[in-house]
Specification:
The protein is an alpha+beta fold. Helix content is 41%, strand content 16%. Helix 7 packs across helix 8 and helix 25 crosses helix 28 (619-639).
Length: 640
């Protein structure tokens, strides 16, 4: 994909200011796209100036031709800039260079994402474009209707529009937050970027918020709250407009998940799946498919094979754990034989401590588990083979009821309806009953009693003040499975009590993919119409067509699946032997766990005791051990 950034200043800045921050911002987002780069300078009392940045020359038929070198264009007259680092996926030629200007010369855009229905939008709205890019379609739509165009977009995006007439900067983000976008404001400037680290440097922030460390270690939440004071993440489904003349910010939500309840998508799910895949196969670069051995990735691969034909070469990428219970190779081979294609395996037995360091350095976030390391290594393997787009199955469980948590919740709200299908549950009925009882007990507690309970179980780990300050729940109280699934899919956009399970996974897909200039496509998570079909409208037993989890999806995609996958009911997900890998390498992490940067948040005696008991720790304690090590490493790098 791409990297975008921008600065708008309120007071006059010298050349050294612009030189420092333009290069700093560029360096921090450069890994997101190295195919091209561009910069637009805003000038007092003059038109915006596109300057030469990523290329030495451009085709003569470009609509707008940057001709001026950067350094010679910098002066005290500059009061803003837009920056773009490009990973070319659609219309990769020079004609799609960014920042891009609309036909009137009023609006300039720096865009990160894909608008998959850009061809249809161009026809429907009679847009005259000079490029074949989705960026220009979005830009011309914005020129016609501004933010009113956002609900029309099918895809994922984060972008900024500069209005040269009004001297305003608008930043916007897609419905589920597939693409990241951060912003910050200080007394003399407003800034935004695809990378959080850029803004942290600009704001001069050197410490992670205690709440972020707490949620990471206790719950494995890496994206539930902002990590640095003053650096905000633009919420999914929102736009923000900065007006430097008025020194004002207007912040609006443009997408309401509750609107799904008023939209009745009557087309068969099979038709929606085929339409979604048809649009997402639009690409001018090589594509590949993640292959887990489960239902979701098999559906996407089967749909793609159907649409591309039998002769199309397909590259499939899988994680394997040889001689481990988590190994899914048996199922992956079944899918591969059914669809054809060349499988590339990444073996978890090759993972080691240095791979954790690589993830922290490249992603600027501490990993939650070896699962993040596995996906990082998979993305590296994909890019090493020259593939630029990777299809993933994220979002299907949230749409169609595939998580064990859905069955736990359903046991409380629709027990009689799901009980006949108990043999096909993804976990044992006894375990579901036990977990449901525990959660129901906690959900009935007042916040004060929840804090008392947390102090009893976690008081030897975290400070009393930190425990008492947190009100975020891993499993908040919901009315039924419909509300739970909406909360998992759209996170805080539904209700602030949800941390966003899907959102966190999408952020890790972006971080790991962008580390290697790889675009992740998740049809179940970024499609406009698939959520309109069932999300928030059906209880779990209604989604279990045929009495199996995600039955509605199984039936719709039956013709594209191997019979064994169609009938498979166990749920493993993206399986990695977490405990064994931590036992193997965790002895090397003592300095990370004992980092002084953790002393004010996590009890030092507890960490020493944890190390003394390693590697005889339980799987649960080993998970905490991993998260504590990863945050320690992250903080040491941040400080150093």
């Amino acid at each position: 994909m791409c990297g975008i950034a921008g600065i708008s200043t309120l007071f006059e800045k010298d050349v050294n200011f612009w030189k420092k921050w333009i290069y700093t911002f560029s360096e921090d987002i450069q890994h997101r796209g190295k195919d091209d780069a561009g910069i637009l300078l805003m000038l007092r009392h003059a038109d915006p100036m596109p300057v030469l940045w990523g290329k030495e020359q451009y085709n003569e038929d470009l609509q707008f031709i940057p001709t001026k070198p950067l350094l010679g264009s910098l002066s005290e007259a500059v009061n803003g800039m837009l920056l773009h680092q490009r990973l070319s996926i659609i219309a990769p030629g020079d004609r799609s260079h960014q920042p891009m200007c609309d036909a009137s010369g009023r609006y300039w855009i720096t865009f990160n994402g894909e608008i998959f229905n850009y061809i249809e939008l161009r026809t429907q709205h009679k847009l005259n474009t000079v490029t074949d890019s989705d960026t220009e379609v979005l830009l011309e739509l914005w020129a016609k209707m501004e933010d009113k165009c956002l609900p029309l977009l099918d895809g994922f995006f984060a972008f900024s529009i500069y209005d040269a007439h009004e001297n305003t900067y608008t930043i916007a983000r897609d419905r589920t937050g597939v693409k990241p976008l951060f912003y910050a404001k200080r007394e003399d400037a407003f800034v935004f970027s695809s990378e959080e680290s850029t803004l942290r440097k600009f704001m001069g922030v050197k410490q992670v918020r205690d709440e972020a460390i707490y949620l990471h270690v206790k719950h494995g939440m890496t994206d539930a709250v902002n990590w640095f004071e003053g650096v905000e993440s633009l919420k999914p489904g929102h736009w923000l407009r900065w007006n430097p003349n008025l020194r004002s910010i207007i912040h609006r939500r443009w997408y309401y998940p509750s609107s799904l309840l008023n939209i009745h998508e009557s087309r068969p799910l099979e038709s929606l799946l085929l339409e979604s895949m048809k649009k997402r196969l639009r690409s001018d670069v090589p594509m590949g498919f993640a292959l887990s051995g489960g239902l979701d990735s098999a559906v996407l691969l089967g749909l793609a094979r159907h649409m591309l034909g039998a002769s199309e070469d397909l590259h499939l990428f899988s994680i394997g754990s040889k001689d481990e219970p988590e190994d899914e190779r048996k199922w992956q081979e079944i899918v591969q034989k059914h669809n054809g294609g060349l499988v590339h395996y990444i073996d978890t037995n090759t993972f080691k401590t240095s791979h954790i360091e690589d993830v922290v350095i490249q992603s600027n976030r501490p990993p939650v588990a070896w699962n993040n390391i596995a996906h990082f290594q998979l993305c590296k393997s994909v890019r090493d083979l020259g593939v630029t787009v990777l299809f993933n199955g994220q979002g299907a469980d949230e749409l169609y009821g595939g998580y064990p948590d859905h069955f736990v919740e359903a046991w409380q709200s629709e027990k009689d309806e799901i009980l006949p299908y108990a043999a096909n549950f993804p976990m044992s009925l006894d375990r579901i009953k036990k977990i449901a009882w525990k959660r129901k007990l906690r959900q009935r507690m007042s916040q004060d009693w929840k804090h008392r309970m947390d102090r009893f179980f976690w008081g030897h780990v975290f400070t009393k003040e930190l425990i008492n300050s947190n009100e975020m729940e891993l499993h908040p109280k919901v009315e039924n499975v419909k509300e739970l699934m909406m909360g998992e899919y759209y996170g805080a956009n539904v209700n602030g009590k949800f941390y966003g399970r899907l959102y966190q996974m999408l952020q890790w897909e972006d971080r790991n993919g962008m580390a290697f200039q790889l675009e992740s496509r998740n049809p179940f998570a970024d499609d406009l119409h698939l959520p309109q079909h069932v999300l928030g409208k059906k209880l779990l037993h209604e989604l279990m067509e045929g009495g199996r989890s995600k039955g509605i999806l199984r039936e719709a995609a039956k013709n594209y699946l191997p019979e064994a996958i169609y009938n498979r009911t166990d749920k493993k997900g993206f399986s990695v032997p977490e405990a064994n890998l931590t036992r193997k390498w965790g002895g090397e992490w003592n300095s990370w766990i004992m980092s002084s940067q953790l002393d004010h948040v996590i009890n030092r005696d507890y960490r020493e005791k944890l190390i003394s008991k390693f590697p005889q720790l339980t799987p649960k304690d080993l998970s905490i051990y991993f998260r504590m090590a990863s945050i320690g490493l992250f903080l040491e790098r941040l400080d150093g």
